């Protein structure tokens, strides 16, 4: 019954989305046609649309809760559970396993979309009413595509008769606390971007593109961006400790699919600020919203369909594949068409000098878009080449060579941007303000050249620019009354500092990492970086649904106390898979990363040891970037509340 | 405890490796000369593990990745240049094996794209700027 109730909730939610779209479409047309009664009419319409959007969100949430319920109860009569779960799986993974598969993750997407739509209906107060109605209409339209996809080709509630005795289990690589956190975070980010896109559609439809609209859209962009940042950071750390070879970014299509929306959202975040404060970059901001949305669609669909990881997965299920392609074409094509049709009505915004805060923000947008373009082309190129009958791979060498220099240029502009004045500024004055950051860059560059020669060019420049950016990012606080500085300025400072910290971690990892791969006997010390690591013994361990061989390692640095590390080689029986669980010791100046491999039959065990100086900065930086976003969001919210309070008093 | 380990080892045996063979000699062992090893490592991260989903041979547990690592290390040790090893692998497995797509008529657009994008972006951004007034 639970599965049927879930399916019913989905159908009802889809019907409500259709109704929401219909009311909005007819309503906005009427409102625009009768400007004299606009306020009254749109008030009535909003009163009709709001409850529909809220109930739609509640129903989608109900469907998700019911799917989680059948997973937690391990109801084998539901096909999805039988294919992706197992009775002996720990409860956390039964719960999170609900979205550890194609159908469930699509349902999670549409649930978050529905809840976000309800949130817009309940909380959005600053947007013009007609635009809000059009926005909710656009939301309903996006949701309809997903409902159709779920109901017609990816029904998560399909029954299986007869029910098997037990399920096929969840891929052990996914059996990690990361699964409970990483996909929902990314999806909230994707959906947040779709909300921003709906705002853009709404504003295009009602010809309302301007600073007020930008101020209403900004918190959604910022919120989505925070979640994307967290999702990518967490995903990167998850891959780092789970895959067992010390890598933290592989330029894998799936990773790129999450990076592209982030790049677009970062650009949008900066251009929406120009629109909100200086009324510039109107058309460009709308275009970025369209691009960001397209990227999150590509991210969601192409990852789910498997077309990027393997071209064959696409052919396995042609119906689903063509459905996905059709949806992508409708969404992205429709968005671009609307943009093309209405961009003429968007009045040109204010212009500005090349050397100005706006100028730096345009450069930021430009370079982020170029990086986005490089990642997109690099990710899709193997598919294009396959069309010409050639199988080729595009990987780290291409992305590093092509995107690396652009990213470093972006970092340099990022250091200067916040130190520029709005509208127009003097290049000479900028150089004077940048004296300390420039000095920091030069000193760092010289220092690394002298004391650590032989570093590759990209990491070397990365380290030097990270030092300069760190100095420049806190520069906006110099000479200011720190207690009167608005919270969102702190947000910007901390986010930019986070980029510097993260960049330093990436460059340090690629410049200074040391690896030791050996077949080790018990008791023989091995050297890696400043550590001496000894294999003390191997012992079996039993987990809830796995067994493992655990290595007991003790690591010593100089005459310091020994650190115990316990990497495992795990064996799962459902499905039959082995994984290596790395053991990582985090020190102030880096991480010691250890993995146990196979025995060689002669009493020796394969050990993989890495010493990675300051690698933790990568994720610490990611956390700082997100924290800056949170402060910024909070700061804007406080200011709006105060402004509204003042209005109420007056 | 010993018996448990034995049982575990028996259960685990088929899972541990794709075949019953021990891993290739240099699959998981570094070269003695750090400069040569660094050369091998730099090459390995740009070679695709052909049986994995988007991993280089430098970070894969697959048996074939181990064999390829051993091959790369053996040839580097023998003094062969990374470029020639890559070439040898490409003739054997096709362009698919290298993550660094070689320049050809088909890949030219890929390598030109970054510069083209930058130029197009600059042209696009030009409209936003006001001509600077003198004085």
UniProtKB/TrEMBL annotation, chain A:
UniProt GO molecular function: lyase activity
Segments crossing the lipid bilayer: 6-28, 49-72, 106-123, 130-152, 187-207, 219-239, 259-276, 283-303, 323-345, 366-390, 402-422, 434-452, 458-478, 487-507, 614-634
Highest rank taxon of the organism: Bacteria
Domain named Cytochrome c-type biogenesis protein CcmF C-terminal: residues: 325-636
Cross-referenced InterPro entries: CcmF_C (IPR032523), Cyt_c_assembly (IPR002541), Cyt_c_biogenesis (IPR003567), Cyt_c_biogenesis_CcmF (IPR003568)
Membrane topology value: Multi-pass membrane protein
Family as reported in the entry's similarity comment: Belongs to the CcmF/CycK/Ccl1/NrfE/CcsA family.
UniProt-recorded name of the protein: Heme lyase CcmF/NrfE family subunit
Originating species: Sphingomonas immobilis
TrEMBL record, chain B:
High-level lineage: Bacteria, Pseudomonadati, Pseudomonadota, Alphaproteobacteria, Sphingomonadales
Signal peptide: 1-17
Residues forming coiled coils: none
Protein family (similarity comment): Belongs to the CcmH/CycL/Ccl2/NrfF family.
Function of the protein: Possible subunit of a heme lyase.
Protein name: Cytochrome c-type biogenesis protein
PANTHER family hit by this protein: CYTOCHROME C-TYPE BIOGENESIS PROTEIN CCMH
Keywords: Cytochrome c-type biogenesis, Heme, Iron, Membrane, Metal-binding, Signal, Transmembrane, Transmembrane helix
Stretches assigned to the CcmH/CycL/Ccl2/NrfF N-terminal domain: 25-133
InterPro entries xref list: C-type_cytochrome_biogenesis (IPR051263), CcmH/CycL/Ccl2/NrfF_N (IPR005616), CcmH/CycL/NrfF/Ccl2_sf (IPR038297)
């Amino acid at each position: 019954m639970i599965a049927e109730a879930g399916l019913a909730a989905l159908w009802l939610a889809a019907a409500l989305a259709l109704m929401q779209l219909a009311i909005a479409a007819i309503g906005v047309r009427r409102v625009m046609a009768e400007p004299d009664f606009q306020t009254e009419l749109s008030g009535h319409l909003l009163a009709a649309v709001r409850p529909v959007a809220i109930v739609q969100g509640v129903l989608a949430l109900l469907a998700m809760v019911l799917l989680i319920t059948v997973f937690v109860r391990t109801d084998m009569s539901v096909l999805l559970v039988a294919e992706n779960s197992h009775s002996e799986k720990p409860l956390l993974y039964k719960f999170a396993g609900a979205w550890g598969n194609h159908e469930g993750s699509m349902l999670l997407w549409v649930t978050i979309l529905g809840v976000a739509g309800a949130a817009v209906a309940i909380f959005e107060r600053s947007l013009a009413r007609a635009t809000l109605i059009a926005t909710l209409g656009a939301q309903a339209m996006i949701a309809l595509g997903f409902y159709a996809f779920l109901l017609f080709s990816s029904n998560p509630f399909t029954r299986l008769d007869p029910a098997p005795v037990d399920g096929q289990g969840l891929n052990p690589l996914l059996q990690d606390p990361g699964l409970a956190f990483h996909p929902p975070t990314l999806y909230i980010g994707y959906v947040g971007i779709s909300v921003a896109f709906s705002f853009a559609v709404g504003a295009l439809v009602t010809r309302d593109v301007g600073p007020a609209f930008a101020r209403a859209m900004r918190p959604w962009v910022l919120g989505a961006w925070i979640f994307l940042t967290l999702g990518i950071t967490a995903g990167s750390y998850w891959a780092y400790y789970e895959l067992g070879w010390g890598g933290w970014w592989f330029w894998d299509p799936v990773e790129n699919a999450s990076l592209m929306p982030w790049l677009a959202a970062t650009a949008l975040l900066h251009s929406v600020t120009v629109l909100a404060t200086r009324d510039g970059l109107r058309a460009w901001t709308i275009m970025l919203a369209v691009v960001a949305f397209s990227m999150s669609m590509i991210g969601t669909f192409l990852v789910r369909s498997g077309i990027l990881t393997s071209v064959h997965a696409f052919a396995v299920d042609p119906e689903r594949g063509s459905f996905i392609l059709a949806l992508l074409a409708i969404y992205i094509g429709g968005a671009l068409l609307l943009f093309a049709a209405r961009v003429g009505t968007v009045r040109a915004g204010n212009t500005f000098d090349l050397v100005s805060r706006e100028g730096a923000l345009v450069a930021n947008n430009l370079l982020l878009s170029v990086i986005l373009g490089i990642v997109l082309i690099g990710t899709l190129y193997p598919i294009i080449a396959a069309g010409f009958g050639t199988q080729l791979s595009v990987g780290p060498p291409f992305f590093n060579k092509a995107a690396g220099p652009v990213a470093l240029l972006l970092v340099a502009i990022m250091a200067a941007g916040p130190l520029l004045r709005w509208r127009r500024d003097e290049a000479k004055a900028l150089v004077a303000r940048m004296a300390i950051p420039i000095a920091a860059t030069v000193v760092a560059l010289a220092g690394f050249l002298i004391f650590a020669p032989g570093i590759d060019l990209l990491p070397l420049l990365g380290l030097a620019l990270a030092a300069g950016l760190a100095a420049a990012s806190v520069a906006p606080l110099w000479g200011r009354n720190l207690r009167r500085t608005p919270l969102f300025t702190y947000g910007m400072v901390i986010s930019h500092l986070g980029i510097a910290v993260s960049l330093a971690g990436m460059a340090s990892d690629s410049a200074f990492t040391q690896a030791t791969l050996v077949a080790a006997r018990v008791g023989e010390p091995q050297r890696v970086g400043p550590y001496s690591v000894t294999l003390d013994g191997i012992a079996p361990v039993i987990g809830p649904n796995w067994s493992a061989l655990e290595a007991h390692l003790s690591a010593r640095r100089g005459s310091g106390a020994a650190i115990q590390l316990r990497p495992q080689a795990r064996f799962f029986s459902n499905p039959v898979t082995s994984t290596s669980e790395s053991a990582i010791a985090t020190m102030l100046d880096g991480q010691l990363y250890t993995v146990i491999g196979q025995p060689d039959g002669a009493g020796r065990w394969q050990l993989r040891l890495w010493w990675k100086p300051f690698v933790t900065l990568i994720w610490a930086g990611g956390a700082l970037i997100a924290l800056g976003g949170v402060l910024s969001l909070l700061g804007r919210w406080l200011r709006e509340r105060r402004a509204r309070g003042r209005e109420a008093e007056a | 405890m010993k018996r448990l380990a034995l049982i575990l080892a028996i259960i685990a045996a088929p899972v541990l490796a794709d075949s019953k063979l021990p891993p290739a000699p240099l699959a998981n062992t570094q070269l003695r000369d750090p400069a040569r090893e660094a050369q091998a490592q730099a090459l390995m991260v740009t070679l695709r593990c052909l049986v994995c989903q988007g991993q280089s041979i430098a970070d894969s547990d697959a048996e074939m990745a181990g064999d390829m690592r051993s091959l790369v290390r053996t040839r580097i040790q023998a003094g062969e240049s990374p470029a020639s090893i890559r070439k040898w692998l490409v003739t054997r497995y096709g362009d698919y094996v290298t993550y660094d797509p070689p320049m050809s008529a088909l890949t030219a657009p890929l390598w030109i794209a970054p510069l083209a994008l930058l130029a197009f972006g600059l042209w696009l951004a030009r409209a936003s700027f006001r001509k600077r007034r003198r004085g």
